[in-house]
Structures are given as structure tokens and as C-alpha cells.
Specification:
With 226 residues, the protein is mainly β. It has one domain (8-219). The protein is 6% helix and 53% strand. It contains one helix and 16 strands. Strands 1, 2, 3, 4, 5, 6 and 7 form a seven-stranded antiparallel beta sheet that branches. β8 (116-120) and β9 form a beta hairpin. The longest helix is centred in the N-terminal third of the chain and has 13 residues, at 24-36. Mean pLDDT is 87; it is low at 1-14 and 16-23.
Length: 226
């Protein structure tokens, strides 16, 4: 799906991806080691799920370095969830020092999967992680988007909303299959954005900033229930 937004990597910030050329891979590896230590990248969450993290990206945000690390559950099941870990770091000597740690800051999908994600600079003054998870069963599926702002004080959840619907795999239900996809458009930084839905239904939803979060303030339609 396209979302009508720029990735943080495409703007002025520095993003170091695992497996990249030059110094990117060593710097990411050093940051990951600083975040998780030499004992291994396993973290047990409050519900007892053990997440195994891998290096994702090292971002140069306006206030410092941010490490993003996808984490998958060691025992995937419909009741376990993955995550996207967030660590804040500063360069120190020949390596990095962690200044903030939120291993399960951004939740993933069922079956222990981390979310798919990208980083955007157009929504707010700080980088925003756009995390996407797909949920559903028996041929009915919806994608959910989480927006999490990477502020100097730590990751701040902004909003979660459903951004697609599909029942084309549900078999012969006697009704016309529905495929509806949403994309973020008409962004006014730190104020509002719209989600434009197209496909078998066309409508828009408006989200406006209310303090530290975004709320839906207008809608010309809704997605079908799962």
C-alpha cells in the first residue's frame, strides 16, 4: 500500500540500515550491542513473552540517535505479539551509550510478529514511526496503523486506526467482495491529517491533534466490521 508520505530516510536525517555499504553496518551493530548487551537480544515482557530482537535501523533524529529493532516472539501463537523496540543513544568513545530504553514500545501483530514500519518526518516536528500490522481470520482481514512520535522524552503513542479491509478470501458469502485501502493525505504538521479510503468504498476520515494524541474528528464513512 502507498501512504502518501515521505520516509524519514528520504529526507535530511541519517538512517543506517543493516547490511548497508560503508560504515553503516558497523555503526548499527555497535548501537545494537549497546542496547542489548553481549548476553543476547532477548527480552521478557510483562506477560511472559520472550522477544528476540534483530537490528533494524539507526536514525539520526534532531535530538540524538534512535535505534529501531524488530522483535519476534520465540513461541509464536495467536496470543503472542511481536514488537518494535526503541532505544535512544549517544556516541561515547568508540561506541554508544543508551540514554533511553523501550524494548516493546511499539506493538506488533499476532503470531509473535513485529510490525512492518517506516519513519516519517511530515506528520509532526519529531520523527514518527508508522507501524502496520495485519489482523483477521477466515478470509476477513484489516490492517492497523500505529503512529508513535519519537520525542526527546521518549516514544509517544499518537493514535491507532484501521487502514484497510478485505474479505476477498472469505469464499462465496453471497455478497460482492470488498477491498478497501486507506492512505494518509493532506498532512498539516502537528495539527491534522486525513485518511483517504478507496476501492469498493470511497470516503475520508480526519484526525486532529489534541495535546499529545490524535483523535478522529470527522468521517464520511466507515470500514466494515471484521
Amino acid at each position: 500500500m502507498a501512504y502518501g508520505i515521505k520516509q524519514w530516510a528520504a529526507a535530511s536525517a541519517l538512517v543506517l540500515l543493516l547490511g548497508g555499504a560503508g560504515e553503516a553496518e558497523p555503526q548499527l551493530a555497535d548501537a545494537f550491542l549497546a542496547a542489548f548487551g553481549a548476553s543476547g537480544p532477548e527480552v521478557e515482557t510483562e506477560d511472559g513473552t520472550v522477544l528476540h530482537f534483530t537490528p533494524g535501523a539507526l536514525i539520526s533524529a534532531p535530538f540524538g540517535l534512535v535505534l529501531l529493532s524488530p522483535g519476534a516472539a520465540d513461541m509464536p501463537s495467536p496470543l503472542t505479539f511481536g514488537a518494535l523496540g526503541v532505544h535512544y543513544l549517544v556516541a561515547e568513545g568508540h561506541g554508544f551509550r543508551v540514554t533511553g530504553s523501550w524494548p516493546d514500545a511499539i506493538g506488533g501483530g499476532t503470531m509473535g510478529n513485529p510490525p512492518s514500519w517506516e519513519v516519517d518526518e511530515t506528520l509532526t516536528r519529531w520523527p514518527v514511526v508508522i507501524a502496520r500490522t495485519l489482523e483477521g481470520n477466515q478470509g476477513y482481514f484489516s490492517e492497523y496503523i500505529q503512529l508513535v512520535e519519537l520525542t526527546p522524552k521518549g516514544p509517544q503513542p499518537l493514535v491507532i486506526f484501521r487502514s484497510s479491509y478485505s474479505d476477498g478470501s472469505a469464499g462465496d458469502t453471497g455478497a460482492k467482495p470488498q477491498e478497501i485501502e486507506g492512505k494518509i493525505v493532506n498532512i498539516v504538521k502537528d495539527q491534522s491529517f486525513e485518511v483517504e479510503f478507496t476501492g469498493t468504498s470511497q470516503f475520508r476520515q480526519t484526525y486532529s491533534r489534541k495535546g499529545d494524541i490524535y483523535e478522529m474528528t470527522a468521517s464520511t464513512g466507515t470500514l466494515p466490521d471484521l
